[in-house]
Amino acid sequence: MPGSNKTERNRKLKANRDAGIGDENGRLPPRVKDAAIKMSCIICKSELTCTKTNTELKKHALGKHGKTDYEECFPGAEVHAKALLEKVTKGGGAGGAGSKNNKQGMTKAEKKKKMAAGLDDLLNAGLASKPGKKK
Questions:
Q1: Rounded Cα–Cα distance for residues 125 and 112 (Å)
Q2: Which of 15, 84, 87, 103 is the least crowded, having the fewest Cβ atoms under 10 Å away?
């Protein structure tokens, strides 16, 4: 009979205590995200979130103020975007190319392509044989 969830949790907490991870009871702290970087438009004082691609900032600058360069409205946004992008590519973020989940070093698209090629080979091998006559 398998152990209960309580037993499994107690095993994990004991392992954490033995390894010196977490607090005195072995509980791990919740994962806390970094605070989002908010930038204020110098023209209209709208506050928007700075991301690695800055799509919101670009749309705001073009739509509200008719400026093609969003750096005029949000000075320093490009620097923040580059820092966020570096953090993600170095494995600092939850996903992306540097993620721990990507063990084989292949992207999701490459894995899908490889899987499709393997299935095509199996299908071709099955179709190449001559079907027998039914008696």
A1: 20
A2: 103
In eight-state DSSP terms, residue 94 is S
Q: Which amino acid is at 80?
A: H
Strand partners, 38: 49
Structure tokens at 114: 């490889």
Which pLDDT score, from 0 to 100, does residue 111 have? 85
Beta-bridge mates of residue 49: 38
Do 81 and 54 touch, CB atoms closer than 8 A? yes
pTM of this prediction exceeds 0.90: no
CB within 8 Å of 133: residues ≥ 6 apart: none
**Half-sphere exposure (CA, 13 Å, Cβ side) for 99?**
10
Q: Which residues contact 70 (CB under 8 A, 6 or more apart)?
A: 54, 57, 58, 60, 61, 62, 77
Rg over alpha carbons for the chain, rounded to the nearest Å, is: 26
Contact between residue 102 and residue 72 where contact means Cβ atoms under 8 Å apart = no
Tokens of 123: 């299908």
